[in-house]
Design brief:
Strand order of the largest sheet: 1-6-5-2-3-4
Number of helices: 7
Strand content: 5-15%
């Protein structure tokens, strides 16, 4: 069986489907990226509304919350380096304890708690049940986190929503691209 890859506008949404949002989708939805790729932000928002209107489940796990939190904070760090004209700044030593970083982590916590976790269905990562042979096989062409995401989507029959083309290299995965 081959991948079923759809653009979001072409996907036939049905009631009660389960969707796993890759971190890049959460970033488009909830990370203030200063008008970065507004077209994809709009597509992600429309997709989000379609899923919810058809009583679909949006799945999240601790891996995605970790990726979202880290990517959001790193993005702010890079913006801070530009704004302070300090391109050689160190994340831990120069930025992490600043008021801005503390405020950004607070914003991240509020976003996770009051937006993502309010609408997404929390699923355990099932570390004890992971098939590491499958993970490391996928890891040959995906980063480790994506290999776990791929494995979870296959095993739980979730539809993956992502802007990452790396996932298209595998069989038996339904993917919605924005």
């Amino acid at each position: 069986m081959t991948n079923k890859i759809f653009q979001s506008k072409d996907f036939d949404f049905k009631s009660n489907q389960s969707f796993f949002f890759d971190n890049n989708i959460w970033m488009f939805l909830y990370c203030p990226i200063a008008q970065y790729n507004e077209a994809k932000q709009n597509v992600a928002s429309t997709l989000f509304e379609k899923i919810l209107s058809r009583n679909g489940s949006i799945i999240v796990n601790s891996l995605i919350v970790s990726e979202f939190s880290n990517a959001y904070l790193r993005l702010d760090f890079n913006l801070w380096k530009e704004e302070t004209k300090n391109p050689l700044a160190n994340f831990k030593n120069d930025y992490f304890s600043t008021k801005r970083a503390i405020d950004t982590r607070s914003d991240i916590a509020n976003t996770v708690n009051n937006k993502i976790l309010k609408i997404a269905e929390k699923h355990p990562d099932s570390f004890n049940a992971l098939n590491f042979n499958n993970i490391f096989s996928a890891y040959k062409v995906l980063d480790y986190n994506d290999a776990i995401i791929y494995n979870e989507c296959i095993n739980k029959n979730w539809i993956l929503v992502s802007d990452d083309s790396d996932f298209t290299k595998f069989d038996d995965l339904t993917i919605i691209r924005i």
